[in-house]
Design a protein that fits this description.
Pfam families: Glycos_transf_2. This protein is an alpha/beta fold and 436 residues long. The protein folds into two domains: 162 residues, Tetratricopeptide repeat domain (Serine Threonine Protein Phosphatase 5, Tetratricopeptide repeat, Alpha Horseshoe); 256 residues, Alpha-Beta Complex (Spore Coat Polysaccharide Biosynthesis Protein SpsA, Chain A), CATH 3.90.550.10. Helices cover 45% and strands 14% of the residues. The strands form two sheets. Strands 2, 3, 4, 5, 6, 7, 8, 9, 10 and 11 form a ten-stranded mixed sheet that branches. A two-stranded antiparallel sheet has the order 1-12.
């Protein structure tokens, strides 16, 4: 069941999901994508290392597209933001792929996110100095480590461009990517995102991803974009936290796309060529994500209490309260330290503390989360009320939950199912609980 604020119509995607389950319901997409299959030019099968060896030739058609894009949208300036953390050895290939773009209206901002090796900042500085001496618009900024999402947010705040392209410091864009993205966006003025298909390179070369046609419901359950899409700045500005610095081991991109679509609506156009090359390494951040995916997914879902069904959110809670590996607990503590102005890290920390039997610490974490939470997030007070009951303070726990039930529809039904399960296990008596 979807939990919603009483008397307030919330997220269209959640409401649409309910309607689509009704007999004879007809559902249409609110935001329909445009698609243009652009062909020709450089193909993704080009060796990635060849990009840094010299300038690839471009066809007359590619050059025409680049010229047309500049003429159609002469003011379209793209800020390419590149977070860097301890992989300066791969940065030269990434920057080489940028300077070889057939489209010239771009700038690059590299953000060193507190690299701990002795070489990455120096490599970045040397590359920026060399390229700026050649007339390219590049700069480097440094900041204490805050994670990938925090570095992207830092970079976007520091640029003025209306169009943003996040590019990881080990990935590559092929020479016609920016031109074809700009051309599509110019020809589809209602669109606010342009994205190309993806091909893997590095340790794995047989991976390719043709992005699916956008579906706002499917976005909740499967990511539909990689990180390197050109999108309008208004999407980022519509999300209070920008890229969410709360998810653990990844999923910042997916969570951002969900939040941006909820806030403003994503209207994509597609380049049906593998113009984005994603480097796959055995020890990459993505590979680490796969090993901790259940916790990453849970950390993402709790960001959207007004989107996901209540049962799915409680399942996410169970992932953290059922006993977690040390590295998960450490990752959550790091989020509390770096993003403790938001409720979500405190909620995860409370769940872990509760699962380990540290009830006082859990109570304190839930109280902090409840104080920081948005008005449409029922989760911290829900956990607080349940923990108050578990501690034997049924008066306080029932009062907390009854107040929640008055604010959120269907939450009382979710609680009834939960409470009757506890009754069935004999852990409480009927008189203790908030049941009619």
């Amino acid at each position: 069941m979807f939990i919603r604020l009483t008397g307030i119509c919330i997220l269209a995607a959640a409401l649409r999901a309910v309607v689509c389950q009704l007999p004879n319901a007809t559902c249409t997409q609110q935001h329909r994508p445009n698609e243009d299959a652009l062909t020709g030019g450089d193909q993704a099968c080009q060796a990635a290392d060849g990009l840094s060896a010299g300038n690839k030739g471009t066809s007359a058609a590619d050059r025409a597209i680049a010229q047309a894009a500049a003429q159609r949208q002469p003011g379209m300036h793209i800020a390419i933001i590149i977070p860097l953390y301890n992989q300066g050895d791969l940065l030269p290939e990434t920057l080489a792929s940028v300077v070889q773009q057939t489209y010239s209206k771009w700038e690059v901002l590299i953000v060193d996110d507190g690299s701990t090796d002795s070489t990455s900042p120096a490599v970045a500085r040397q590359l920026v100095d060399n390229y700026t001496a050649q007339g390219f618009n590049m700069r480097l900024m440094e900041k204490p480590n805050g994670g990938l999402a925090d570095a992207r947010n830092f970079a976007i705040r520091a640029v003025q461009a209306n169009w943003i392209l996040p590019l990881d410091s080990d990935d590559i864009i092929l020479p016609t990517f920016l031109a074809k993205a700009a051309d599509l966006l110019a020809r589809h003025p209602d669109a606010n995102l342009a994205v190309a298909d993806e091909k893997g390179f590095g340790d794995v070369t047989d991976f390719a991803w043709q992005l699916p046609q956008f579906d706002d419901l499917e976005l909740l359950f499967a990511n539909q974009f990689h990180c390197s899409a050109v999108y309008h700045r208004s999407l980022w500005e519509a999300v209070p936290y920008g890229y969410p610095p709360f998810t653990i081991f990844g999923y910042e991109d997916w969570a951002f796309w969900i939040a941006a679509h909820n806030a403003l609506g994503i209207r994509p156009v597609y380049i049906r060529e593998d113009l984005f090359l994603y480097r796959i390494r055995h020890q990459s951040m993505h590979q680490q994500l796969l090993h901790s995916q259940q916790y990453s997914l849970a950390s993402m879902r709790i960001l959207f209490a007004h989107v996901y069904p209540g049962e799915l959110l409680l399942a996410a809670h169970d992932k953290f309260s059922g006993g977690v590996p040390d590295k998960v607990a450490a990752a959550v503590e790091e989020k509390v330290a770096k993003a403790g102005d938001w409720a979500y890290p405190w909620l995860m920390a409370g769940l872990i503390k509760e699962g380990s039997g540290s009830m006082e610490d859990a109570m304190a974490a839930y109280e902090t989360a409840a104080a920081l939470a948005d008005c449409d997030d029922w989760q911290p007070r829900w956990r607080l009320g349940l923990l108050q009951q578990a501690a034997g303070d049924f008066s306080a726990g029932n009062a907390t939950l009854v107040q929640l039930f008055s604010e959120f529809t269907l939450l009382d039904q979710l609680y009834e199912s939960y409470a009757r399960d506890r009754l069935g296990r004999g852990s409480v008596t009927l008189e203790d609980l908030v049941l009619e």
